[in-house]
Design a protein that fits this description.
single chain; alpha/beta; eight-stranded mixed sheet; two-stranded antiparallel sheet; 10 helices; 16 strands; about 30% helix; globular
């Protein structure tokens, strides 16, 4: 210990520690949500737009008026206002924000949900990684076991987890047994990663189909909760995410698109706020009331922000150089601001945060060693989070 340079000891702070969170809920907002019209208002500046800032339950923190209910939960939340992105293209930026890496034609890096599913032991019969209302990033070299289970319509039964109409349970089970025998013979003759992945997917699907834990997907009888979360697809998805983490799912991604507002952005953001505000606020409030917020990391994130300048069409264009995200739970200190943008929201003014730093912070919360290396199918060692990342220590108590 005495022989280690002090800088190396400090570098290890935040890597090996007891996890605060067992679960994570990621609200992924596809298209690039405007940071100025949400978490980082600029009152009195030419870039401010139509919305006024409102006070929150956290002293000294103001957010956009389109999130009044989230404002009442801000004492549980932290804002990072100085994310320094590198990509202004939707596809490349989404890939980077979801994996911490830039796109590479020679390898598919796993999304953060797949990393959590790979590194954290399963807690129940349901899949460790579930994506609601949209496709999640691929598991890449981590394999089929770490792929997301997809839910299209929250609260509706998955038709693929039941035998087709007219096929009895006995008949269906006989067919599955016959399929297993045929696959077993084929696998003995042929050895391929694709066959193994298909077999894994089939086994997982059959196990889930036969599991009593499937009732967690059913939102019947949740009328009072839905009245608070909102009778919308996003509201149902947020409520379902709450239930799934309560059942043991490690990582839930709730997807919402429609943020690529190159025109008429203020009308669009009013609509987004009306749908998202009650859902996110109710989720955070319920987790706090149940004593589960400390063990559940909640994050609201998009691939980039929007330009501070409002264009001639009343919209904002792509802006990756500085944007924001909201975090709550999982050891994150409530009522905390990390970093600041400049007076117009163009560039980070203090504490620039890299995209890999966000991933390191997620891993820090869930007790995952973000410097760990995994081996790709081609035998190449690959670090789970891009090298050089460090947790945002100011976020955590």
């Amino acid at each position: 210990l005495l022989g280690m340079p002090v800088r190396h000891l400090f570098a290890e702070i935040g890597r090996a520690h007891a996890p605060k969170a067992d679960h994570m809920i990621l609200f992924w907002l596809g298209g690039g949500m405007s940071h100025i019209d949400s978490w980082d208002p600029k009152p009195g500046r030419p870039t401010a737009g139509e919305f006024q800032p409102i006070k929150t339950s956290a002293s000294g923190i103001e957010i956009s008026e389109v999130f009044p209910q989230v404002a009442s939960q801000m004492h549980h939340c932290s804002l990072v206002r100085s994310i320094a992105g590198t990509n202004g293209d939707h596809g490349r930026a989404t890939y980077e924000l979801q994996t911490s890496y830039g796109q590479n034609p020679n390898i598919v890096h796993p999304g953060v949900g797949s990393i959590i599913a790979h590194e954290c032991e399963p807690l129940g019969a349901l899949p460790s990684y579930i994506s609601i209302g949209g496709r999640a990033p691929r598991a890449g070299y981590l394999g089929q076991k770490c792929e997301a289970y997809y839910i299209g319509q929250p609260g509706e039964r998955d038709p693929y987890l039941a035998f087709p109409e007219g096929i009895s349970k006995v008949q269906g089970n006989r067919r599955l047994d016959l399929l297993a025998k045929m696959n077993g013979k084929m696998n003995k003759r042929l050895s391929s990663a694709e066959l193994k992945a298909t077999e894994t997917a089939l086994e997982d699907a059959v196990a889930l189909m036969r599991s009593p834990a499937l009732k967690a997907f059913d939102l019947e009888g949740e009328d009072k909760a839905l009245a608070r979360y909102g009778e919308t697809e996003f509201g149902r998805a947020a409520l379902l995410a709450n239930r799934l983490t309560q059942t043991g799912v490690r990582f839930v991604q709730v997807n919402r698109g429609g943020f690529d507002n190159h025109s008429d952005i203020f009308t669009a953001m009013r609509g987004h706020g009306a749908v998202m505000d009650p859902a996110i606020a109710s989720l955070i409030g319920d987790l706090a009331a149940d004593g589960r917020l400390e063990r559940t990391l909640v994050m609201v994130l998009s691939e980039f922000g929007r330009t501070p300048r409002v264009n001639d069409g009343g919209g904002r264009d792509h802006h990756a150089r500085c944007f924001s995200c909201l975090m709550a739970g999982g050891g994150v200190k409530g009522g905390t601001l990390v970093g600041a943008s400049d007076e117009d929201g163009v560039l980070p003014a203090t504490r620039p945060v890299s995209v890999p730093d966000l991933h390191a912070s997620i891993c820090h919360s869930l007790g995952v060693d973000f410097t760990k290396e995994a081996t790709t199918p081609l035998g190449r060692p690959m670090q789970l989070v891009k090298s050089g990342a460090e947790p945002i220590t100011e976020l955590f108590a």
